[in-house]
Amino acid sequence: MKSGGGGLGAAVPSYGVPAKRRWRGFVIAVLGLVILSMLVPLVFLLGLHNGFHSSGYIYEQRSSPTNQKSLETFERHDVAKDENQSEQGRQSKHVQELITKFQPTLPKDVLKNYSRGDKDRTVNGGANNDKQRGFTAPPKGVQQSPPPPPPTSNNPRGGHVEQVSHPKTSSADENGKSCELTFGSYCLWQQEHREDMKDAMIKKLKDQLFVARAYYPSIAKLPAQDKLSRQLKQSIQELEHILSESTTDADLPPLVENNSQKMEVATARAKSVPVDCNNVDKKLRQIFDLTEDEADFHMKQSAFLYKLNVQTMPKSHHCLSLKLTVEYFKSSHDEEKADAEKFFDSSLHHYVIFSNNVLAASVVINSTVTHAKESQNQVFHVLTDGENYYAMKLWFLRNNYKEAAVEVLNIEHLELDNQKENPLQLSLPEEFRVSFTSYDNPSMGQIRTKYISIFSHSHYLLPDIFSKLKKVVVLDDDVVIQKDLSALWNLDMGDKVNGAVQFCSIKLGQLKSYLGEKGFSHNSCAWMSGLNIIDLVRWRELGLTQTYRRLIKEMNIQEGSGAWRASLLAFENKIYPLDKSWVLSGLGHDYTIDTHAIKTSPVLHYNGKMKPWLDLGIPNYKSSWKKFLNKEDQLLSECNVNS
Asked: Which CATH number fits domain 316-638: 3.90.550.10, 1.10.10.10, 3.30.465.10, 3.40.50.1370?
């Protein structure tokens, strides 16, 4: 029994051991397969990673057309994968040595052309071959490193890479990039027409702030970008603070470059974060609309300040007027009656000037007397308002103008028979701006803009103010005389009243929307004030002052505005046309007047908004006005009058 039992007991283990061993072998095989399935992708990934060298080149398999299409915008090189890992490591090491050796001597950006090395291929053919072989031109602005060396001869799929070819003629632009200087090259044009940008740093900071504001809302919504969000917000606040206190580069703080660099780094990081482009686009559009509204506001503000500037007396002129007024009451004026007899002598040459500007009136008189052959026959009547009356009086008492006589009248204190009910006020010649096409050839379509000056309300008081005179010459206070005007007194104007320069580019018919439809000839020319010879006798006979007042009532024009419409109609068919060579107009708005014409013209008229005594005056024309200032007067230096 023992032996039988022992035989049975021995038979059972001998059957179970091989079964357990087979089970263990199966488990080990399965585990081995699992481990291999994990190692194979890992090995593949590590091998692919080794294919991307640190030099910045992307190596791709030619057998993958999808990869070739997706990487089409980058630099490619068709380099076969070497199965020998040691050989590949040696080549990679050799590439790094070449980069280290040649990188300092190569420019940052050069045009690289790669080909198979065919000597006889053309430029276009080479480009097509490169494209077929997987080579594409680098995108603009992408910096590249030198290409790797040619593969060894045992690589049957390896191609040849040419050396970097430098352009024959190149030059660096403002960003330090090289460009080919060929005909039609923008880089060449940019260098030839380069202009220094004013306040370049201010503009750069504004651009950086514009971009940062566009990206900040999208970055702030990402919890993972809290640090970048805070950095971007801080940079925005810093630039806003700097720009709030600085309008030019000279106002910027010393370390503004650091703020700019900090903002540049922050915006670069923000651009690298994947965000919804629609949100950035919306923010950019919002900022653009706000900027456009702000620009529109500043344009309106600039127009208002410009208008305020041209209509307000400069500070230095106001200072001069105040000092003259104070000095007038401190001194005696016995000599002011010395030339009283000349003021009513109709045989002399009488000139009338309406002005509230001391220096302007002085320049008109000084320039007229300087070019006069016989200054003793000249009498000047300056009509001004009560505010500037005493300053005018003292100025013309302090300054002599050869043998000419100067009378200053306060128009507000004149006692005229027709003006006892309403107090008189000084009104200067009215100017209106008109844009027009040529009346004779309107099909040309060329639009021109002119400022036309016309008599104001005060001019229609001339027959009453100078009741004993027969003829006067009216000069605006924005003219400069460069020739003797005595020839004007010998003109025979016939039955005409006003000798003026006509402006036939504008016909009254073109102004019918302002003048009405009836009561005038549509082919009549407009005329200009500035230099006008007036026949007061004929004026009184025709009753032009009454005609003017009737037109004012019919047109419902308020005194002080819109008088030019009534003036044009009141003098219709009563203008004696002076030769155009007498007056050169436009010096107050036209930048294109010929220098020779300015020097030779008898009368210069600064009609327009940019008067020569203002800072806004056209610089090229100011010298013709300045030379007739009496710069020796001490009050000019005290008030810093350097017009």
From this structure: 3.90.550.10
